[in-house]
Specification:
This protein is α/β, with parallel strands linked by helices and 153 residues long. It has a single domain (2-151), classed as 3-Layer(aba) Sandwich (Glutaredoxin). It has helices spanning 2-13, 55-67, 86-96, 109-113, 143-151, and strands at residues 23-26, 31-33, 45-50, 74-79, 101-104, 122-126, 132-136. A seven-stranded mixed beta sheet has the order 2-1-5-4-3-6-7. The chain starts with a helix and ends with a helix.
């Protein structure tokens, strides 16, 4: 546990930016590139890695869908489900009527680039230059905490 906390603190202290381009698809089959995170209209980007089998992730995404319209931030959910489940991911999202972008990272290239392990959810907040300003890997992140982080930027 102590080692995990130390690694998290170490990762947060590193200057990290999204500069590599990894091609993914969104749930509608459109191509997206991860380097677009630094080119988005809103100055801050929140990236939330989750999976269909993670019920707390789905509940958090429901809450985020209700709250993110008040944030001056772009929100992207990234599914790390295997590609054979992509049709189920799309169906689940369409049932929930989420208004944010959902990217599919079935081969986990983007997740590996950001050192996302096997545990989800993992949330990243990037500033307008694509620099990582917050990383949280557990279920305890609340929309209120995200709002506080955004207020600091």
């Amino acid at each position: 546990m102590k080692q995990r906390v130390f690694i998290t603190i170490l990762l947060l202290s590193l200057t990290f930016t999204i500069d590599a381009q990894i091609k993914l698809k969104d749930i509608y089959g459109n191509s997206v590139n991860t380097d677009t995170i630094v080119k988005m209209e809103r100055p801050v980007v929140i990236t939330f890695f989750s999976a269909l089998w993670c019920n707390p992730c789905l509940k958090m995404l429901d809450k985020i869908n209700d709250d993110y319209i008040y944030w001056n931030a772009e929100f992207i959910a990234v599914s790390v489900d295997e590609s054979r489940y992509n049709h189920l991911v799309k169906r689940k999202i369409e049932e929930r009527v989420w208004d944010f972008s959902i990217w599919l990272d079935s081969d986990k290239k983007f997740a590996r680039m950001l050192s996302v392990g096997a545990t989800v959810p993992v949330t990243f907040i990037f500033d307008a230059k694509g620099k990582l300003v917050c990383r949280k890997q557990d279920y305890s992140l609340t929309t209120e905490e995200i709002s506080r982080q955004l207020d600091k930027l």
